Amino acid sequence: MSAAQTTRTADKPTEAPPEHRREWAHMALITIGPVVVALVIGGLGLIAMGGNPLTSYSYVAGRGLVSPSGLPATLTRVGPPVPIAASPIGALPAGVSDLGGDGAVPLGAVLVAAAGPALVEIFPVWIVLIVGLLIGAVVGMLWSVVPALLRAYQGVNEIITTLMMTFLGVSLANVLVKLAFLDPTTTVPQTRTLPVEDRLPRLFDTTVSSGLLIGLAVIIVVHLVMTRTAFGLKLRVVGANSKAAIHAGLPVPLLTVMVFGISAALAGLAGAVDILGTQGNVRADWNPAYSLTVVPLVFLARFNGFGTIAFVFLFSVLLIGGESAARKLGVPNYFSLVIVAILLVVLGLTEYLDQRRQQKVRN
Amino acid sequence: MVGSSASPVAAQGPVVSLRQVTKRFPGVVANDHVTIDLWPGEVHVLLGENGAGKSTLVGMLSGLQKPDEGEILIDGSAIDIASPRQALDLGIGTVFQHSMLVPSLTLVDNFTLGGPWWRRPDREGVAARMREQASSIGIRIDPYALAGSLSLGEQQQVEIVRALMRGSRCLILDEATAMLTPRDAEQLGELMRRLVARGLAVVFITHKLNEALAYGDRISVLRLGKNAGAMEPQVLKSADTSAAMAEVVRMMFGTNASGEAEAGGREARRAAGGKPVLAVDDLTVDDGSVPLSGISFTVAAGEILGLAGIDGNGQKQLAEALAGQRPIRSGSLKLKGVSLEKAGVGERRNHGLRYVTDDRLGEGTVGTFPVSTNLLLKQIGDRPFWKSGVEQPAAIADNARRYIGEFDVRTPSIETPVAKLSGGNIQKVLLARELSGAAEAVIFAKPTYGLDVQNIRSSRRRIREAAEAGRAVLLISTDLEEILELADRIAVMSQGRIVGTVDNDADARRKIGELMSGMTV
């Protein structure tokens, strides 16, 4: 008896690390597991269509990552969606399903694209870039005011209102391009173009814009604010249990409005980064729909900023590689979207099974 | 109260019998060897506080849950009720507090909903049968009215008609009068009398003692999941209302004379109390179900004021209004002379007003967050745990370790999500949070509700210690024993008002019983 006790106490210090490691292994399993399963299911689909999954996947990976133009192309592609990924990282844990990013992006972009070429004639470039980023953020924020107030004070479901504001935002951006800010010198309906030398600098002689760095910085900042600060904790309390937030005396409606503001500002900022870094102008009917692309990836990463960056990168590899594969191997272009869709379904199932398993363990 | 004498106590046995039925949920025994017989021709009233096990009992009778032990007899033979459909087939119909009708459909369409999808419903036939059934129990319904256009009372009548059309012999009305206007409740009572006159067995679950005595033939009281007492029809009929009321109150809140022993201790503490710390004057608070009005009381330093009353008479609303979670319409709230009626939750807390909620997981904690965070839930952003808004993990962990030790919280680690702890340990987390720092007045809402004996004892000790340390304590409880054990004075709450305040002396139990029953009639 006493011998058993001594061994147990002796074991104790070494017992904690394996426990920790097991948790990590579990986390990795339920995050990477679905990716593998989705690829396998997608591969079965490829076989059914008469393709070879192995050649296809290795081709995609090769094009997206290994080939000389692959990585920069992928990084260029990652650039614009990265800042907008910060938006749900802040909003979702606070219990706000703000899906209005796809309205804020083109609206912010159009106003930045309109202001940029005009400002550049008066101010030095760095002021123009900073003002441009601010314009994008403010426009995005303003576009969220109505859904924010409706949710915070009337309890109106923000999924509906933000989606409706998205339609309005895309249309308004379109109208602004065609009626207000049309570039008179071209026949294509688009705004005036910001000269390449006045845009955000490129990184090391590649096509990758330094906007990517802004995006990464924003994600990491939002991640740290949510996990390490009092403000982030307050938001997470509101999201996890709004009754507890009221009990603890937190100003729930005010915090909700702030979450909307920040989330939408980040989306507007993403629009600005895209214009100032990559596009230079906005064409009519431009609707990149980054937000709805990114939200599932943020879920996949369980609101973790670093995980989100990884998944956005992975997704971009799939997209770039997928485009090449479409041309070269005849695999349909939207196959990468199919993979993401399968991934989400598998992820949902994994989450469900994991929760059931945990409940069983607890009982 | 039509024909309450007309219960045909036939030679036949009970329609439904529960024999030694036990149902456990994780951490709770909801029903503990409960035995109840439901006789035809009787309104059987089931009384008990929230959490006494009434809902579990109904759940087992209506096929939603299965007993872990014991058996349910239908017409004398043991039967496993496996599903709600089977319960209906066995003749057990249930009418819930909230209507189960689809509001946008007519009553006929509601009734034909369950039919096979390929067959055109016989709406005329169903409507005719509805009218016939309704008139046979003395009510009128329009089968083509939209369900949503009816009052709640009318909707319940419709549900009763539906249950009868399905051939129910035993009808369970689960807190059916809780949401009704007095007029509708009275009509429902008369309807119950007509139903039992036809030989049905009716189970009537209620919080309201006056309804229980007015419409019931037999009363069973559940307390903490056990049979706490029953009144047979003969007894109920012969006893006069106030005597019966007193007896029911005694069964609901239990009796034992252990409260006397500590009277001396209470005397001493009361003498120590001086000026009022917490003073509430003529408080009015809006609420949909139980608005508060004319609430006035004071609590001195070192004094425990007990607030007794049957659950749902405005105690929760009062606690929330005092803590700042619910706006005060008029009246004043003073803590050590400082007016706080307009202050927010945080400001009241900073002045020393603390609230230990009874909804421990619902609002008291964030279940998925670690114990350490929950201990600081009301101080997010305060130094030294956050500096310039950035969290200081070391300070937060130190704080957690200190309170876990001081309040004996049994947790695997300070990082464990608080929902994984037992109810008693979650309560210790709340007590640690609310009793720490510069507490001046503490509101305890049902502080031992749902806890095991050991944790009940330690929670009560904390309450006593809080008072001994000179804090003003408001103890809200539906457990009369607890209040008699701890309080110096006892206020009784009924229907959103304080109906009387008595000193906790030898005669307190009787006076409280009178105040409770007197005002609930």
Tags for this entry?
heterodimer; A: 363 residues; 2 domains; disordered N terminus; B: 521 residues; alpha/beta; Rossmann fold; six-stranded mixed beta sheet; 24% strand; globular
Describe the structure.
The complex is a heterodimer of chains A (363) and B (521). Chain A is mostly helical. Chain A has 2 domains: 22-77 and 313-363, no CATH class; 81-287, no CATH class. Helix content of chain A is 77%, strand content 0%. Chain A contains 15 helices and no strands. Chain A has helices at 2-48, 53-66, 70-78, 81-91, 101-120, 125-143, 145-154, 158-180, 211-228, 230-240, 242-247, 252-279, 290-300, 305-329, 335-362. Chain A is globular. Chain A starts with a helix and ends with a helix. Chain B is globular. Chain B has 3 domains: 16-102 and 168-252, Rossmann fold; 262-352 and 438-520, 3-Layer(aba) Sandwich (Rossmann fold), CATH 3.40.50.300; 373-435, no CATH class. The two termini of chain B are 14 Å apart. Residues 1-11 and 256-265 of chain B have low confidence and may be disordered. In chain B, 36% of the residues lie in helices and 24% in strands. With 521 residues, chain B is of the alpha/beta class. The chains are: A mainly alpha (363), B alpha/beta (521). At the A-B interface, helix 10 and helix 11 of A face helix 12, helix 13 and strand 18 of B.
